Amino acid sequence: MTNEQLLSYQLPSIEQSSFEKHPKRFLNKKLVAKLFYFIPSLAGVIIPFFIVENHPWIWKTTGSVWVLLLIISIFISYKEFFVRGYVLRENDITYRYGWLFHHQITIPFNRIQHTEINHGPIDRYFKLCELDIYTAGGSSSDLSISGLDPDKARFIKEYISQRTAQHA
Amino acid sequence: MLDISQPTRQSKLSILFYLLKGIKGLIAFVFFAAFSMRSWNSTLGVIAVSAFIIMVTLVGPIVQYWFFKFYVTGDELIIEKGWIFKKRKAIPLERIQSINITQNIGQRLLGIVAVEIDTAGSKAKELEIPALNRHFAIQFKDLLGLKKQHLIIDSNVIETADSIVSNNDMTSTIDSKLILELSFIDLLKVGITQNHLRSGGLAIGVIIGFWYKIKDVVENFFGDIFESVDVDLEQAVKQPEAFGYSILVVILSAVVMFLIASIVVSLLMSINKFYDYKMILKDDHLEVRMGLLNKKEIKIPLSKIQILEFHSNPLRKLLNFKTARIYQAQSQNNIISSVEVPACHPALQSQLQHLIFEESIEQSEKELLTNPWSHARLDMYIASIFGLPLAAMAIFFQYYWAIIIPVCFIIAIGFMGYQYGKNSRVIRDDDFVVFYKGWLFNSVIISPVYKTQAIEKWRSIFIKKRGEAHLKLHTAGGSRQLKYLIEKEINVMQNDINNHVIQSTKNWM
């Protein structure tokens, strides 16, 4: 058994590791979910179309605003997919997400309190699930990695709980 | 010695306490009833409602008193309450983080106190015994502390029964050291150096909220004095010269009134909050006591403290003191997770720091500076949201000279932002991460590196090209961040802090 002393600056930096991507069907799921999200607000276009007959500009403007917002949010989700990624290392997990507002957060395993796997109906349809990682304190440092393959999520969860058990 | 192995009820005064609470809740109901049911005069209805109210206000407290029991069995404190909806809470003694004794006005009138039991990960209000004799409460608190210690020692096994006894003797006789006691002069100083703008805002809010009531009262006593003061605003705008300097005088006196009101409000607020302030170091925890109307006694174990902050403002700089804030590992929605230490002189500041973290900040190893221009730019963007419409209005109404006001406003905000950025930085030495933030209202935030929970770097797409990003440090006592640092330097620090945490074997809580 080796027990060499490690100095903190000798440990590898996050930038050197390659980030693992989410499966492609996560992108499809996000786009479909966005569409579902936007359908209720379509009422704001349809109702003026049938009710306000004298001022067609009302439904025209609301309609174009709706289309514009939809395009923008789909564009953002699309862009975001390619930024997302996680790195699982021996002692910590790093996740990065967001295109407009990009975040990269690192949690060492010896600070993780517990982990959780969640999946909703749309997630199940696309065979995806979400891994939530909780740390102590407020919810601001909790991490939720959505759009994981169920097997992979289970593997990561197992791995993390194994590692955290060593530190407890 | 207190025996609480049998189910114990609270002090009988708790019935009165619940009654007071019930009446307080009823006030709103009575107001509502008085205003909305004037035409409602069915006798039966009135009787029914009164019966219901009497039930709620009189029988409720007795039921509440009768069914609220607490006792210790084995390693657990059990709290039972409720009659129809029974609740039974079991709190493992070793999970108890701190036990606080608090007293609000109602409890003070009755001479009782509340005992709040704080465990990580629960709402403090749930584990509250609201009405106990002070004497009983203190004994109860000590007993719980002692039992908890027994458990910890038992689990360590090594000590014999004798040493447990001696250990207990030791803890009870250990000298408690007074760290800070505020005299009345100190209280005045603290009050005068509060952020008066905030208190002034509060005063204005209260006045606006109660304006019509105040007006009613005044008119009842003095008749229609407001009628004669009624200024024709339209006339005033059209012909300012007709009023001469009187408008200037009105504005000036309004400002003076505002200043006086805000100073008085901050004085009263801080005297109420910090009256009889005492901070004592006992064994391995700090005990803080304060309050005039609402008394508070807080106990913080030193090891639970995550962040120490020092805040200052220009007035405090003059008097050479700062206000410290101690953040402990928080359970959800726990308000007592931070404790304020007013009137911290430099000697006390370093004493506190030494006491809590045992080490003092050394020469900084790494320093990250923010880009002041980025701060200025962001602040100016925000200011222009208000400034540009004002300028547009000035142009529309052809008061071209008035454009100066929004322009000056935006420039001033930008200057403040620049100074904020120039005076802000993050320092990392062997043991601590220190944030220096702000200019006139500056603060120093100290957190030990090994207490970090997670570390985050984030940026918007707009500052990506500039190679800047924000650094966010998450601890169990909350998150702190500083914006507009150089991304490459953040990467280095992120790795560095993360690796430090991985290697650290120290207990962060």
In short:
By secondary structure, chain A is α+β, with helices and mostly antiparallel strands.
What features would you describe in this structure?
The complex is a heterodimer of chains A (168) and B (509). With 168 residues, chain A is α+β, with helices and mostly antiparallel strands. Helices cover 43% and strands 23% of the residues of chain A. Chain A has a three-stranded antiparallel β-sheet, with no helix packed on it. The model of chain A has no long low-confidence stretch (mean pLDDT 86). Chain B is of the alpha+beta class and 509 residues long. Chain B has four domains: 8-153, Pleckstrin-homology domain (PH domain)/Phosphotyrosine-binding domain (PTB) (PH-domain like, Roll), CATH 2.30.29.30; 192-274, no CATH class; 278-370 and 424-503, no CATH class; 372-420. Chain B has a seven-stranded antiparallel β-sheet with strand order 7-6-5-11-10-9-8. A seven-stranded antiparallel β-sheet of chain B has the order 14-13-12-18-17-16-15, sandwiched between helices. A four-stranded antiparallel β-sheet of chain B has the order 1-2-3-4. Chain B is globular and about 75 Å long. The A-B interface holds A 6, 8-9, 11, 13-15, 91-92, 98-111, 135-138, 140-141, 143 and B 120, 306, 329-330, 452-461, 464, 474-479, 491-492, 494-496, 498-504, 508-509. Strand 3 (101-108) of chain A pairs antiparallel with strand 19 (452-460) of chain B, so a sheet runs across the interface.
